[in-house]
Amino acid sequence: MAEVRSRGLIGLLRHAISTAMNRPDAALPNHFELLATDGTARTGRLTTPHGVVRTPAFMPVGTAGAMKGMHWREVRDAGADIVLGNTYHLMLRPGAERIAALGGLQRFTGWSGPMLTDSGGFQVMSLADLRKVSEHAVTFRSHIDGAKVELSPERSIEVQRFLGSDIAMQMDECVRLPAEHADIERAMQLSLRWAERSKRAFESAPDGYMLFGIVQGGDVPQLRHASAEGLVAIGFHGYAIGGLAVGEPQAVMLAMIDETAPMLPKERPRYLMGVGTPDDILEAVKRGIDMFDCVMPTRNGRHGVAFTRFGQVNLRNARHADDPRPLDEESTWPSTRSYARAYLHHLVKAGETLGAMLLSEINIAYYQSLMQGIRDAIAHGTFDEFYQRTREDWARGDIAPRQGD
């Protein structure tokens, strides 16, 4: 009887190995190590040519090769392992070939750590005038000088290789929600075909560099399933969920993550593109997402809004004019615990650049502190407690009592 059970186990093991080896991404080097799980939440380590990324990770967005209002050393000191650059903007100015001639994006910018570049597809759809989508490529007029530009999957990968990013993204078409079912399905199918072309174009990349596929499908579960299945069949180093945080309610976004994440390989990194608020991130981590990016920390900082342990604080409000308290006396980030709300309010109202700079770094530091707290909680099996405590702190608002009160 024991021998029969043993044979059965061996058979199952052989079947599992055969299934894994028949999946295209099994033939790709895997640079992601899953270190711990707590429920569906995961923490891991992604090794790139320019360093290690601790996950879950938030990637600050340096769209045109710079972090708005911040020096790269502040981004690093705040705890960021990886940042994001944008293919669309960099190919238009200063040009991918020029950046390559100057040593690649890391040397050009002075950021020595890992970088991810998006494909440029979203910006083409959202910024470019007179765009035309065909099977071959997207043609559009530059928002800078009106020049006619063509961006194909092959050109997108070529640009990203010129930039030298550690992680490149496939070319895709992103549809803003709400949208008609037919439009969502057409874009999803086109993105799958472009995924195949992107992978072929990436085959000559040096070892260690990665290409992620992007799941599309809007708010239609069946299309999300079809896209995920198609991408896994093609095989990528990692998988992103795209086409969310583009106008739909949070409940829809989370439902699409619930539909998609379980279909992606557990041993590969999962990236939720363009997300988002601390609330969005916490909910997505709970659903098994590993990587995030968003312009919100620096954009909101430039508009007078701080992200803190007690939620968002709008420094434009008059009630802060006489408030001597810092944003958070217990923060590990010096600017968060050192500057009075009254002073930050003054800087914002006076339009002083320093106000935007301080709030941008405060926000990036909070996001990175949140990610570190998430990673620690998952590693120690206490993510549910961290989740509840974080939500309770946010619910308290920015009226935390002064020390000694």
UniProtKB/TrEMBL annotation:
A Pfam family per the record: TGT
Keyword Acetylation: no
Gene Ontology biological process terms from the UniProt entry: tRNA queuosine(34) biosynthetic process; tRNA wobble guanine modification
GO CC annotation terms, alphabetical: cytoplasm; cytosol
Record's catalysed reaction(s): 7-aminomethyl-7-carbaguanine + guanosine(34) in tRNA = 7-aminomethyl-7-carbaguanosine(34) in tRNA + guanine
All residue ranges annotated as the tRNA-guanine(15) transglycosylase-like domain in the record: 40-394
Residues that bind substrate: D118, S119, G120, G121, F122, D172, Q216, G243
GO molecular function: tRNA-guanosine(34) queuine transglycosylase activity
Record-annotated active site: D118, D293
Keywords, comma-separated and alphabetical: Glycosyltransferase, Queuosine biosynthesis, Transferase, tRNA processing
EC number: 2.4.2.29
Region described as RNA binding: spans on this chain: 274-280, 298-302
InterPro entries in the record: ArchSynthase1/Queuine_TRR, TGT, TGT-like_sf, tRNA_ribo_trans-like
Pathway terms, separated by semicolons: tRNA modification; tRNA-queuosine biosynthesis
Recorded family membership: Belongs to the queuine tRNA-ribosyltransferase family.
Known function: Catalyzes the base-exchange of a guanine (G) residue with the queuine precursor 7-aminomethyl-7-deazaguanine (PreQ1) at position 34 (anticodon wobble position) in tRNAs with GU(N) anticodons (tRNA-Asp, -Asn, -His and -Tyr). Catalysis occurs through a double-displacement mechanism. The nucleophile active site attacks the C1' of nucleotide 34 to detach the guanine base from the RNA, forming a covalent enzyme-RNA intermediate. The proton acceptor active site deprotonates the incoming PreQ1, allowing a nucleophilic attack on the C1' of the ribose to form the product.
Subunit comment: Homodimer. Within each dimer, one monomer is responsible for RNA recognition and catalysis, while the other monomer binds to the replacement base PreQ1.
Protein's UniProt name: Queuine tRNA-ribosyltransferase
